[in-house]
Write a structure and sequence with these properties.
Blueprint lengths: L2 E7 L2 E7 L4 E5 L11 H10 L15 E6 L11 H10 L7 E6 L8 H8 L1 H4 L3 E4 L8 E6 L5 E5 H4 L3 E7 L2 E2 L3 E2 L13 H8 L17 H11 L4 E9 L5 E7 L3 H14 E3 L4 E7 L7 H4 L1 H6 L3 E10 L18 H11 L4 H8 L5 H16 E6 L7 H5 L3 E3 L2 H11 L5 E5 L6 E3 L2
Parallel strand pairs: 3-19, 4-5, 4-9, 5-6, 9-12, 14-20, 15-16, 15-19, 16-17, 17-18
Antiparallel strand pairs: 1-2, 7-8, 10-11, 12-13
Helix pairs in contact: 11-13, 12-13
């Protein structure tokens, strides 16, 4: 007799029949935290009582730059952006002195319609906005070098502002430990070269996954780089539950407020597991925008598996592959795993630089992370929004066209008495392993 578990998938529930000999050790979920009843009041309270700095005052005549995350991020900024603008105007800012800048990093540009949906059409009416361009030197300014060697070039608009607001969310992050904070500036508003050098701070043979860690070298490096502007930053970060509702805002100093937010996210999203498992069943919820966001759930949970464990990933991927660069060709995943396991973790980056000599900014560090995970674990993916050949083209996971087909393969791969961890909201949950 099989046993059935249920995970969220494409806005509904998906039942998965497990082999009767498998043992589910735990359903690992974020701690329940309700959304705030009045988003506007919660935001006003947080802005009026900031963490680590003085409240915003006397903004008359000041050039205020509002940096927002892009359409690939799930932050429901449209729920509160109008309240943020109202708060600034109440403190003397003029609508014509406000500017919005999208923190794209090297993601594609947003359209007016997308910005309207992201922030609210009425909220941004009359406010000038633009997309960041990491590849246009005329829109960047060189500021020097960090102590870790990152050459810092940032969007010129940062240097021309009197006040910079970083508006985003704090969530578990594979390279930084947690997102949010000054990540909006680097990589969000940085030059392509700056982004590349900063990202490689998180790539070492011994450590490739920082999820759940307070800080990482990449985080410290980007904070140093962002502060090189010499401008005043004010953080407006939301903390979201697994339903993408705002539970709390942290506002104020971009580092102190961010660290306070991290503590709140850790209490909600970091969950203890009894032991490492043979199989992790994970749904991408709530990071469902595309393959880039969906794959985060695999990185979040892979550390709770034994060596050579199995990840069964159910990815929504509402916008398909998104703007990820699809490799022209790839080794079959079974061949790649054999090669990587022979090479060992310390030679993975060497291997990437041999086979991907023309790799771009994100491709190199994403390849390193993915190959380290593939070296350690087998990954099976089910998604109805991805082209059927996605797995073969990327070469890092085996893709299935039906749940039954996936589970048949899983029975053959996993131990007969496999221990299992289930992550219904894997995009927002990470394990605390004993």
């Amino acid at each position: 007799m099989s046993q059935t578990i249920v995970v969220p998938f494409e806005g509904q529930s998906l039942g998965i029949d497990l082999p009767r000999h498998w043992k589910v050790d735990a359903h690992v979920k974020p701690s329940p935290l309700p959304g705030v009843k009045d988003v506007g009041a919660a935001l006003s309270e947080a802005i009026s009582h900031p963490i680590g700095c003085e409240p915003l005052r006397d903004l008359g005549g000041k050039r205020v730059l509002i940096v927002v995350d892009d359409i690939s991020r799930p932050t429901p900024t449209h729920l509160y952006f109008a309240y943020l603008v109202e708060h600034l105007i109440e403190r003397g800012a003029r609508r014509e002195d406000l500017r919005i800048l999208t923190a794209l990093g090297i993601h594609r540009a947003m359209t007016q319609d997308e910005l309207n949906r992201k922030l609210g059409a009425e909220a941004i009416a009359g406010i000038a906005w633009k997309n960041h361009d990491a590849r246009d030197p005329s829109k960047l300014v060189a500021l020097g070098q960090t102590r870790r060697g990152t050459e810092v070039s940032l969007n010129r608009d940062l240097t021309e502002a009197d006040l910079i607001l970083c508006v985003g969310a704090i969530e578990p992050h594979l390279l930084l430990g947690f997102g949010g904070g000054l990540k909006m500036i680097v990589p969000g508003l940085a030059a392509e070269r700056t982004i590349a050098q900063n990202h490689m701070q998180g790539v070492t043979p011994d450590r490739y996954n920082f999820v759940g860690q307070d800080v990482s070298d990449m985080r410290l490096d980007l904070e140093e780089a962002a502060l090189m502007t010499g401008k005043r930053y004010f953080l407006v970060n939301a903390i979201l539950n697994d339903g993408l509702e705002v539970c709390r805002f942290v506002c104020g100093d971009p580092i102190e407020a961010h660290r306070a937010g991290i503590e709140a996210v850790k209490r909600m999203n970091g969950q203890p597991v009894p032991r490492r498992a043979d199989v992790a069943i994970v749904a991408s919820s709530p990071m469902n925008a595309d393959l880039r966001q969906g794959m985060k759930c695999i990185g979040n949970v892979e550390q709770s598996l034994v060596d050579n464990g199995l990840v069964l990933a159910f990815l929504d991927c509402e916008n398909g592959i998104g703007d990820l660069v699809v490799p022209p060709k790839a080794l079959p995943v079974r061949v790649l795993r054999k090669v990587l396991r022979v090479l060992g973790r310390k030679r993975v980056l060497w291997f990437i630089d041999k086979v991907k000599r023309d790799a771009g900014v994100e491709e190199r560090f994403l390849a390193h992370f993915s190959m380290q995970v593939v070296r350690k674990n087998q990954i099976f993916v089910y998604s109805r929004k991805l082209p059927a050949d996605t797995g073969k083209r990327f070469g890092i996971f085996r893709q299935f066209t039906s749940v039954d087909e996936m589970m048949t393969a899983a029975r053959r791969y996993a131990p007969r008495h496999a221990r299992v961890l289930v992550y219904p909201h894997g995009g927002a949950t990470y394990p605390i392993v004993p």
